[in-house]
Amino acid sequence: MESQRIIQGVSGAHNEAALLALIKQTGYSIVQENGQRKFGGPPPGWEGAPPSRGCEIFIGKIPRDLYEDELVPVFLKIGKIWEFRLMMDFSGTNRGFGFCTYCSKSDAKKAVKELNNFEIRKGRYLGVCSSVDNCRLFVGGIPKTKQKEEILSEMSKVTDGVVDVIVYPSAVDKAKNRGFAFVEYESHRSAAMARRKLIPGRVQLWGHTIAVDWAEPEPETDEDIMATVRILYVRNLMLSTTEEHIQEVFEEAIGKKDCIERVKKLRDYAFVHFRQRDDALKAIEIMKDDSVIDGSRVEVVLAKPVDKNDFSKVAKAKGLQQVFFGDGRCVHFNLYEVAYIFCKTFRGVARPNVPPIRGGRGRGAAGSRGAGGNKGYVPTLMRGGYRRNPVEGRLFDLLPGVELTPTNPTTLKPLSVRSPVQVLEELCQKNHWGIPAYQLHSAIQRDAITNTDSQFFLFKVWFLQLF
Protein backbone atom coordinates (compact mmCIF):
# COMPACT_ATOMS: atom_id res chain seq x y z
CA MET A 1 0.00 0.00 0.00
CA GLU A 2 2.83 2.36 0.89
CA SER A 3 4.62 1.66 -2.35
CA GLN A 4 1.44 2.49 -4.22
CA ARG A 5 1.22 5.85 -2.45
CA ILE A 6 4.82 6.57 -3.36
CA ILE A 7 4.15 5.71 -7.00
CA GLN A 8 1.14 8.06 -7.01
CA GLY A 9 3.27 10.93 -5.80
CA VAL A 10 6.41 10.28 -7.81
CA SER A 11 5.65 8.12 -10.84
CA GLY A 12 5.74 10.07 -14.07
CA ALA A 13 7.68 13.04 -12.70
CA HIS A 14 10.59 14.09 -14.87
CA ASN A 15 12.85 13.90 -11.78
CA GLU A 16 11.41 10.58 -10.59
CA ALA A 17 14.85 9.06 -9.99
CA ALA A 18 15.93 11.97 -7.78
CA LEU A 19 12.72 11.80 -5.73
CA LEU A 20 13.04 8.04 -5.24
CA ALA A 21 16.63 8.56 -4.07
CA LEU A 22 15.42 11.19 -1.57
CA ILE A 23 12.77 8.78 -0.23
CA LYS A 24 15.34 6.02 0.17
CA GLN A 25 17.83 8.34 1.87
CA THR A 26 15.43 9.92 4.37
CA GLY A 27 12.83 7.19 4.89
CA TYR A 28 10.01 9.70 4.37
CA SER A 29 7.06 9.00 2.07
CA ILE A 30 5.80 11.23 -0.75
CA VAL A 31 2.21 11.46 -1.94
CA GLN A 32 0.51 13.97 -4.21
CA GLU A 33 -3.10 15.02 -3.54
CA ASN A 34 -5.29 18.08 -3.88
CA GLY A 35 -2.74 20.01 -5.92
CA GLN A 36 0.13 19.55 -3.49
CA ARG A 37 2.91 17.02 -3.05
CA LYS A 38 3.52 16.02 0.56
CA PHE A 39 6.87 14.87 1.87
CA GLY A 40 6.38 13.22 5.27
CA GLY A 41 3.51 14.20 7.56
CA PRO A 42 4.31 12.42 9.78
CA PRO A 43 8.02 11.53 9.51
CA PRO A 44 9.19 7.94 10.07
CA GLY A 45 8.74 6.74 13.65
CA TRP A 46 6.70 9.76 14.73
CA GLU A 47 4.37 9.16 17.67
CA GLY A 48 1.92 11.59 19.15
CA ALA A 49 0.06 14.65 17.91
CA PRO A 50 1.24 16.85 15.03
CA PRO A 51 3.47 19.86 15.89
CA SER A 52 1.73 22.80 17.53
CA ARG A 53 0.88 26.11 15.87
CA GLY A 54 3.93 28.17 14.98
CA CYS A 55 6.00 25.31 13.59
CA GLU A 56 5.11 25.95 9.93
CA ILE A 57 6.92 28.32 7.56
CA PHE A 58 6.01 29.63 4.11
CA ILE A 59 8.50 29.34 1.25
CA GLY A 60 8.02 31.59 -1.75
CA LYS A 61 9.87 32.54 -4.95
CA ILE A 62 10.70 28.89 -5.66
CA PRO A 63 11.90 28.38 -9.25
CA ARG A 64 9.24 26.46 -11.19
CA ASP A 65 11.64 23.68 -12.16
CA LEU A 66 12.98 23.08 -8.66
CA TYR A 67 11.62 20.26 -6.50
CA GLU A 68 11.94 18.41 -3.19
CA ASP A 69 15.22 16.73 -4.11
CA GLU A 70 16.89 20.18 -4.01
CA LEU A 71 14.68 21.88 -1.42
CA VAL A 72 14.35 19.30 1.34
CA PRO A 73 18.11 18.83 2.01
CA VAL A 74 18.45 22.60 2.52
CA PHE A 75 15.62 22.74 5.08
CA LEU A 76 16.71 19.51 6.80
CA LYS A 77 19.96 21.25 7.75
CA ILE A 78 17.95 23.47 10.11
CA GLY A 79 16.17 20.66 11.98
CA LYS A 80 13.83 17.71 11.75
CA ILE A 81 11.00 18.21 9.25
CA TRP A 82 7.55 16.91 10.11
CA GLU A 83 6.09 17.69 6.67
CA PHE A 84 7.11 19.50 3.49
CA ARG A 85 4.33 20.50 1.07
CA LEU A 86 5.09 21.75 -2.43
CA MET A 87 2.19 23.26 -4.39
CA MET A 88 1.91 21.69 -7.86
CA ASP A 89 -0.01 22.44 -11.03
CA PHE A 90 -1.42 20.08 -13.66
CA SER A 91 1.62 20.41 -15.92
CA GLY A 92 3.86 18.83 -13.29
CA THR A 93 5.77 22.00 -12.38
CA ASN A 94 5.53 23.60 -8.97
CA ARG A 95 3.49 26.77 -8.41
CA GLY A 96 6.36 28.76 -6.93
CA PHE A 97 5.61 28.25 -3.25
CA GLY A 98 5.32 25.63 -0.52
CA PHE A 99 5.15 25.02 3.22
CA CYS A 100 7.54 23.32 5.62
CA THR A 101 6.45 22.15 9.07
CA TYR A 102 9.20 21.51 11.61
CA CYS A 103 8.90 19.38 14.70
CA SER A 104 9.68 22.36 16.95
CA LYS A 105 9.01 26.11 16.95
CA SER A 106 12.67 26.91 17.54
CA ASP A 107 13.64 25.20 14.27
CA ALA A 108 10.90 27.09 12.41
CA LYS A 109 12.20 30.43 13.72
CA LYS A 110 15.76 29.45 12.90
CA ALA A 111 14.74 28.57 9.33
CA VAL A 112 13.12 31.98 8.83
CA LYS A 113 16.26 33.76 10.06
CA GLU A 114 18.78 31.67 8.13
CA LEU A 115 16.95 30.73 4.92
CA ASN A 116 15.09 33.93 4.02
CA ASN A 117 16.85 35.27 0.91
CA PHE A 118 18.81 32.01 0.66
CA GLU A 119 20.36 31.60 -2.81
CA ILE A 120 18.94 28.26 -3.88
CA ARG A 121 20.39 28.66 -7.38
CA LYS A 122 22.65 31.27 -8.91
CA GLY A 123 20.73 34.53 -8.83
CA ARG A 124 17.57 32.88 -7.42
CA TYR A 125 16.67 33.62 -3.80
CA LEU A 126 13.99 32.02 -1.64
CA GLY A 127 11.54 34.05 0.41
CA VAL A 128 10.90 32.41 3.79
CA CYS A 129 8.58 33.67 6.52
CA SER A 130 6.38 32.32 9.30
CA SER A 131 3.10 30.76 8.20
CA VAL A 132 -0.01 31.64 10.20
CA ASP A 133 -2.83 29.12 10.39
CA ASN A 134 -5.62 31.70 10.45
CA CYS A 135 -8.69 30.71 12.48
CA ARG A 136 -10.31 34.14 12.70
CA LEU A 137 -12.91 35.84 10.46
CA PHE A 138 -13.83 39.49 10.21
CA VAL A 139 -17.61 40.01 10.24
CA GLY A 140 -18.88 43.49 9.36
CA GLY A 141 -22.38 44.93 9.20
CA ILE A 142 -23.37 43.90 12.72
CA PRO A 143 -25.98 46.10 14.43
CA LYS A 144 -24.14 48.34 16.89
CA THR A 145 -26.58 47.56 19.69
CA LYS A 146 -25.69 43.86 19.84
CA GLN A 147 -23.58 42.51 22.70
CA LYS A 148 -20.86 39.84 22.59
CA GLU A 149 -23.12 37.05 23.89
CA GLU A 150 -25.76 37.77 21.23
CA ILE A 151 -23.20 37.75 18.42
CA LEU A 152 -21.62 34.53 19.70
CA SER A 153 -25.01 32.83 19.87
CA GLU A 154 -26.05 33.98 16.39
CA MET A 155 -22.75 33.00 14.71
CA SER A 156 -22.93 29.57 16.38
CA LYS A 157 -26.35 29.04 14.79
CA VAL A 158 -25.20 29.71 11.21
CA THR A 159 -21.66 28.23 11.37
CA ASP A 160 -19.92 25.34 13.13
CA GLY A 161 -16.83 25.39 15.31
CA VAL A 162 -17.20 28.87 16.82
CA VAL A 163 -14.93 29.23 19.86
CA ASP A 164 -15.03 32.93 20.72
CA VAL A 165 -16.12 36.35 19.51
CA ILE A 166 -14.07 39.53 19.92
CA VAL A 167 -16.11 42.74 20.01
CA TYR A 168 -14.79 46.23 20.66
CA PRO A 169 -17.00 49.00 22.00
CA SER A 170 -17.42 52.25 20.13
CA ALA A 171 -14.98 54.99 21.03
CA VAL A 172 -17.87 57.44 21.37
CA ASP A 173 -20.52 55.28 23.05
CA LYS A 174 -19.24 52.36 25.12
CA ALA A 175 -22.71 50.80 25.21
CA LYS A 176 -22.48 50.12 21.47
CA ASN A 177 -20.08 48.06 19.38
CA ARG A 178 -18.15 49.32 16.35
CA GLY A 179 -20.32 47.52 13.81
CA PHE A 180 -18.00 44.57 13.35
CA ALA A 181 -16.62 41.59 15.26
CA PHE A 182 -13.92 38.95 14.99
CA VAL A 183 -15.10 35.35 15.17
CA GLU A 184 -12.60 32.74 16.34
CA TYR A 185 -12.99 29.12 15.15
CA GLU A 186 -11.55 25.89 16.48
CA SER A 187 -9.47 25.29 13.34
CA HIS A 188 -8.50 26.86 10.06
CA ARG A 189 -10.73 24.39 8.25
CA SER A 190 -13.77 25.42 10.31
CA ALA A 191 -13.03 29.08 9.62
CA ALA A 192 -12.60 28.39 5.89
CA MET A 193 -15.90 26.50 5.71
CA ALA A 194 -17.68 29.31 7.56
CA ARG A 195 -16.20 31.90 5.22
CA ARG A 196 -17.29 29.90 2.18
CA LYS A 197 -20.82 29.68 3.57
CA LEU A 198 -21.11 33.35 4.55
CA ILE A 199 -19.18 35.23 1.87
CA PRO A 200 -21.80 35.07 -0.94
CA GLY A 201 -23.96 37.45 1.12
CA ARG A 202 -26.97 35.15 1.33
CA VAL A 203 -26.84 34.93 5.13
CA GLN A 204 -28.24 37.81 7.19
CA LEU A 205 -27.90 38.48 10.90
CA TRP A 206 -30.82 40.25 12.55
CA GLY A 207 -32.04 41.27 9.11
CA HIS A 208 -28.71 42.88 8.20
CA THR A 209 -26.48 41.80 5.30
CA ILE A 210 -23.02 41.04 6.66
CA ALA A 211 -19.56 41.30 5.10
CA VAL A 212 -17.24 38.38 5.85
CA ASP A 213 -13.57 37.81 5.10
CA TRP A 214 -10.34 36.68 6.70
CA ALA A 215 -9.13 38.77 9.61
CA GLU A 216 -5.51 39.81 9.55
CA PRO A 217 -3.59 37.37 11.79
CA GLU A 218 -2.08 38.69 14.99
CA PRO A 219 1.56 39.59 14.31
CA GLU A 220 4.12 37.21 15.73
CA THR A 221 6.87 39.01 17.63
CA ASP A 222 10.20 37.44 18.49
CA GLU A 223 10.26 36.15 22.06
CA ASP A 224 13.67 37.70 22.70
CA ILE A 225 12.33 41.11 21.69
CA MET A 226 9.16 40.73 23.77
CA ALA A 227 11.33 39.85 26.79
CA THR A 228 12.68 43.43 26.76
CA VAL A 229 9.37 45.29 26.28
CA ARG A 230 8.40 47.71 29.08
CA ILE A 231 5.56 49.49 27.31
CA LEU A 232 1.90 48.66 27.95
CA TYR A 233 -0.93 48.98 25.46
CA VAL A 234 -4.19 50.13 27.05
CA ARG A 235 -7.37 49.75 24.96
CA ASN A 236 -10.99 50.93 25.31
CA LEU A 237 -10.36 54.25 27.06
CA MET A 238 -12.87 57.05 27.15
CA LEU A 239 -12.20 59.89 24.73
CA SER A 240 -12.22 62.29 27.68
CA THR A 241 -9.57 60.39 29.64
CA THR A 242 -6.30 62.34 29.86
CA GLU A 243 -2.71 61.11 29.77
CA GLU A 244 -2.13 62.55 33.25
CA HIS A 245 -5.04 60.57 34.69
CA ILE A 246 -3.83 57.34 33.07
CA GLN A 247 -0.42 57.83 34.65
CA GLU A 248 -2.00 58.46 38.05
CA VAL A 249 -4.10 55.27 37.79
CA PHE A 250 -1.13 53.05 36.93
CA GLU A 251 1.17 54.55 39.55
CA GLU A 252 -1.52 54.10 42.18
CA ALA A 253 -2.16 50.50 41.04
CA ILE A 254 1.44 49.37 41.61
CA GLY A 255 1.99 51.73 44.56
CA LYS A 256 5.04 53.43 43.14
CA LYS A 257 5.58 57.04 42.08
CA ASP A 258 7.74 58.20 39.18
CA CYS A 259 7.84 54.72 37.65
CA ILE A 260 6.43 55.88 34.30
CA GLU A 261 8.46 57.80 31.75
CA ARG A 262 5.50 59.02 29.71
CA VAL A 263 2.01 58.19 28.45
CA LYS A 264 0.94 58.62 24.83
CA LYS A 265 -2.83 58.56 24.26
CA LEU A 266 -4.41 58.31 20.80
CA ARG A 267 -8.19 58.51 20.68
CA ASP A 268 -9.43 55.54 22.80
CA TYR A 269 -6.13 53.75 23.42
CA ALA A 270 -2.78 54.64 24.94
CA PHE A 271 0.83 53.47 25.37
CA VAL A 272 2.27 53.60 28.88
CA HIS A 273 6.08 53.68 28.96
CA PHE A 274 7.50 52.29 32.22
CA ARG A 275 11.06 52.86 33.37
CA GLN A 276 11.43 49.23 34.51
CA ARG A 277 10.01 46.10 32.88
CA ASP A 278 9.19 44.57 36.27
CA ASP A 279 6.85 47.50 37.01
CA ALA A 280 5.12 47.00 33.65
CA LEU A 281 4.57 43.29 34.35
CA LYS A 282 3.26 44.08 37.82
CA ALA A 283 0.79 46.58 36.35
CA ILE A 284 -0.50 43.95 33.90
CA GLU A 285 -0.97 41.44 36.70
CA ILE A 286 -2.93 43.93 38.80
CA MET A 287 -5.04 45.44 36.00
CA LYS A 288 -5.61 42.47 33.70
CA ASP A 289 -9.04 41.59 35.12
CA ASP A 290 -11.94 44.04 34.90
CA SER A 291 -9.95 47.22 35.42
CA VAL A 292 -12.01 50.39 35.03
CA ILE A 293 -10.74 53.87 34.14
CA ASP A 294 -13.27 56.71 34.08
CA GLY A 295 -16.14 54.22 34.02
CA SER A 296 -14.81 52.23 31.06
CA ARG A 297 -13.50 48.65 31.35
CA VAL A 298 -10.04 48.62 29.79
CA GLU A 299 -7.73 45.94 28.42
CA VAL A 300 -4.02 46.05 29.34
CA VAL A 301 -1.34 44.03 27.52
CA LEU A 302 2.32 44.32 26.57
CA ALA A 303 2.80 46.41 23.46
CA LYS A 304 4.23 44.59 20.44
CA PRO A 305 7.10 46.45 18.74
CA VAL A 306 6.74 47.01 15.01
CA ASP A 307 9.16 45.06 12.85
CA LYS A 308 10.92 47.80 10.90
CA ASN A 309 11.77 45.28 8.19
CA ASP A 310 8.08 44.60 7.56
CA PHE A 311 6.77 47.40 5.36
CA SER A 312 3.09 46.66 5.97
CA LYS A 313 3.47 46.86 9.77
CA VAL A 314 5.51 50.05 9.58
CA ALA A 315 2.88 51.57 7.31
CA LYS A 316 0.09 50.82 9.78
CA ALA A 317 2.12 51.99 12.76
CA LYS A 318 2.73 55.35 11.07
CA GLY A 319 -0.90 55.69 10.08
CA LEU A 320 -0.02 55.99 6.40
CA GLN A 321 -2.91 56.65 4.08
CA GLN A 322 -3.63 53.75 1.74
CA VAL A 323 -5.72 53.06 -1.33
CA PHE A 324 -6.60 49.42 -1.98
CA PHE A 325 -7.42 47.73 -5.25
CA GLY A 326 -9.56 44.66 -5.82
CA ASP A 327 -6.61 42.33 -6.26
CA GLY A 328 -5.03 43.25 -2.95
CA ARG A 329 -2.50 45.76 -4.26
CA CYS A 330 -2.19 49.07 -2.49
CA VAL A 331 -0.64 52.52 -2.80
CA HIS A 332 0.59 54.41 0.24
CA PHE A 333 0.28 58.19 0.16
CA ASN A 334 2.43 60.65 2.12
CA LEU A 335 4.93 57.83 2.47
CA TYR A 336 8.32 59.32 1.87
CA GLU A 337 8.91 62.50 3.84
CA VAL A 338 12.67 62.65 3.27
CA ALA A 339 13.58 60.09 0.65
CA TYR A 340 11.38 59.85 -2.40
CA ILE A 341 11.35 58.70 -5.99
CA PHE A 342 11.44 61.10 -8.90
CA CYS A 343 11.32 60.01 -12.52
CA LYS A 344 12.43 62.60 -15.06
CA THR A 345 10.29 61.16 -17.83
CA PHE A 346 6.92 61.55 -16.11
CA ARG A 347 5.35 64.44 -14.30
CA GLY A 348 3.82 63.69 -10.89
CA VAL A 349 0.03 63.43 -10.85
CA ALA A 350 -0.93 63.89 -7.24
CA ARG A 351 -4.21 62.90 -5.65
CA PRO A 352 -3.74 63.99 -2.05
CA ASN A 353 -6.19 63.01 0.67
CA VAL A 354 -7.72 60.13 -1.29
CA PRO A 355 -9.95 58.19 1.13
CA PRO A 356 -9.04 54.52 1.57
CA ILE A 357 -11.36 51.85 0.22
CA ARG A 358 -12.76 49.98 3.20
CA GLY A 359 -13.51 46.28 3.31
CA GLY A 360 -13.17 43.15 5.34
CA ARG A 361 -10.01 41.62 3.91
CA GLY A 362 -6.92 42.22 5.95
CA ARG A 363 -8.63 43.85 8.92
CA GLY A 364 -6.70 43.39 12.14
CA ALA A 365 -7.75 42.96 15.72
CA ALA A 366 -8.33 46.68 16.12
CA GLY A 367 -10.31 46.98 12.91
CA SER A 368 -7.47 48.73 11.07
CA ARG A 369 -6.49 47.58 7.62
CA GLY A 370 -2.98 46.57 6.68
CA ALA A 371 -1.26 45.69 3.44
CA GLY A 372 -2.75 42.22 3.27
CA GLY A 373 -3.36 39.99 0.28
CA ASN A 374 -0.77 40.23 -2.43
CA LYS A 375 2.34 41.74 -0.94
CA GLY A 376 3.30 43.41 -4.22
CA TYR A 377 2.75 47.15 -4.43
CA VAL A 378 1.57 49.28 -7.28
CA PRO A 379 4.60 51.07 -8.74
CA THR A 380 5.09 54.76 -8.25
CA LEU A 381 4.70 55.48 -11.95
CA MET A 382 0.99 54.71 -11.70
CA ARG A 383 0.73 58.02 -9.88
CA GLY A 384 3.66 59.62 -11.67
CA GLY A 385 6.04 59.09 -8.77
CA TYR A 386 6.12 60.04 -5.11
CA ARG A 387 7.11 63.62 -4.44
CA ARG A 388 8.27 65.47 -1.36
CA ASN A 389 5.67 68.18 -1.98
CA PRO A 390 2.53 66.73 -3.61
CA VAL A 391 0.97 68.71 -6.41
CA GLU A 392 -2.05 70.55 -5.09
CA GLY A 393 -5.30 71.12 -6.97
CA ARG A 394 -5.56 74.49 -8.71
CA LEU A 395 -8.39 76.74 -9.86
CA PHE A 396 -8.32 78.28 -13.35
CA ASP A 397 -10.22 81.40 -14.36
CA LEU A 398 -12.67 80.94 -17.21
CA LEU A 399 -11.68 83.30 -20.03
CA PRO A 400 -14.42 85.73 -21.16
CA GLY A 401 -16.10 84.78 -24.41
CA VAL A 402 -14.91 81.17 -24.43
CA GLU A 403 -17.34 78.82 -26.18
CA LEU A 404 -18.90 76.11 -23.98
CA THR A 405 -20.01 72.92 -25.73
CA PRO A 406 -22.36 70.41 -23.99
CA THR A 407 -20.51 67.09 -23.67
CA ASN A 408 -21.63 63.61 -22.68
CA PRO A 409 -18.96 62.13 -20.38
CA THR A 410 -19.75 58.58 -21.54
CA THR A 411 -18.75 59.43 -25.10
CA LEU A 412 -15.37 60.90 -24.21
CA LYS A 413 -12.45 59.02 -25.72
CA PRO A 414 -9.86 57.69 -23.30
CA LEU A 415 -6.59 59.55 -23.02
CA SER A 416 -4.17 58.55 -25.74
CA VAL A 417 -1.26 58.81 -23.32
CA ARG A 418 -1.06 55.66 -21.22
CA SER A 419 1.00 55.17 -18.10
CA PRO A 420 3.97 52.79 -18.21
CA VAL A 421 2.05 50.42 -15.93
CA GLN A 422 -0.85 50.21 -18.38
CA VAL A 423 1.54 49.58 -21.28
CA LEU A 424 3.35 46.87 -19.30
CA GLU A 425 0.16 45.08 -18.24
CA GLU A 426 -1.22 45.15 -21.79
CA LEU A 427 2.06 43.67 -23.02
CA CYS A 428 1.86 40.93 -20.37
CA GLN A 429 -1.71 40.07 -21.34
CA LYS A 430 -0.80 39.97 -25.03
CA ASN A 431 2.09 37.56 -24.39
CA HIS A 432 0.26 35.52 -21.70
CA TRP A 433 2.82 36.41 -19.03
CA GLY A 434 0.18 36.95 -16.34
CA ILE A 435 -0.28 40.06 -14.22
CA PRO A 436 3.09 41.46 -13.11
CA ALA A 437 3.81 41.69 -9.37
CA TYR A 438 5.63 44.65 -7.87
CA GLN A 439 7.96 44.39 -4.87
CA LEU A 440 9.22 47.46 -3.04
CA HIS A 441 12.98 47.67 -2.33
CA SER A 442 15.12 50.31 -0.70
CA ALA A 443 18.77 51.31 -0.62
CA ILE A 444 20.91 53.63 1.49
CA GLN A 445 23.10 56.12 -0.40
CA ARG A 446 25.46 58.76 0.99
CA ASP A 447 25.31 62.29 -0.40
CA ALA A 448 28.86 63.40 -1.24
CA ILE A 449 27.99 67.06 -0.69
CA THR A 450 26.09 66.95 2.60
CA ASN A 451 27.80 63.74 3.82
CA THR A 452 24.45 62.37 4.99
CA ASP A 453 22.71 59.06 4.28
CA SER A 454 19.41 59.00 2.42
CA GLN A 455 17.06 56.11 1.82
CA PHE A 456 15.82 55.62 -1.72
CA PHE A 457 13.05 53.32 -2.92
CA LEU A 458 12.45 51.37 -6.11
CA PHE A 459 10.18 48.60 -7.31
CA LYS A 460 11.25 45.24 -8.72
CA VAL A 461 8.81 43.80 -11.25
CA TRP A 462 8.17 40.03 -11.28
CA PHE A 463 6.65 38.16 -14.22
CA LEU A 464 5.30 35.11 -12.42
CA GLN A 465 4.43 33.10 -15.53
CA LEU A 466 8.05 33.26 -16.72
CA PHE A 467 9.44 31.48 -13.65
Order of strands across the main sheet:
1-2-4-5-3-8
Mean pLDDT over all positions: 75
Q: Main beta sheet: strand number and arrangement?
A: 6 strands, antiparallel
Question: Helicity level, as a percent range?
Answer: 10-25%
What's the N-to-C terminus distance?
Answer: 36 Å
Low-confidence stretches: 1-6, 318-392
* Number of helical regions: 11
Instruction: Find the count of extended strands (DSSP E, 2+ residues).
Output: 23
The fraction of residues in strands falls at 25-35%
Spatial shape? globular
Q: Which structural class do you get from the secondary structure elements?
A: alpha+beta
Rounded Rg: 27 Å
GO molecular function: RNA binding
Domain RRM: 55-133, 135-217, 230-305
InterPro entries: HnRNP_R/Q_splicing_fac, Nucleotide-bd_a/b_plait_sf, RBD_domain_sf, RRM_dom
Keywords: Cytoplasm, Repeat, RNA-binding
Summarize the structure.
It is built from eleven helices and 23 strands. With 467 residues, the chain is α+β, with helices and mostly antiparallel strands.
Characterization of this structure:
The chain is of the alpha+beta class. Helix content is 23%, strand content 26%. It is built from 11 helices and 23 strands. The chain has helices at residues 2-10, 16-26, 68-76, 105-115, 148-158, 188-198, 223-226, 243-254, 277-287, 311-317, 420-430, and strands at 30-33, 36-40, 56-60, 81-88, 94-102, 119-121, 124-125, 127-130, 136-140, 162-166, 180-185, 204-205, 208-209, 211-214, 231-235, 260-266, 269-274, 291-293, 296-302, 321-324, 330-333, 437-446, 453-462. The protein has a 6-stranded antiparallel beta sheet with strand order 1-2-4-5-3-8. Strand 20 and strand 21 form a beta hairpin. The longest helix has 12 residues, at 243-254. The radius of gyration is 27 Å and the shape is globular. Mean pLDDT is 75; it is low at 1-6 and 318-392. It is found in: Cytoplasm.
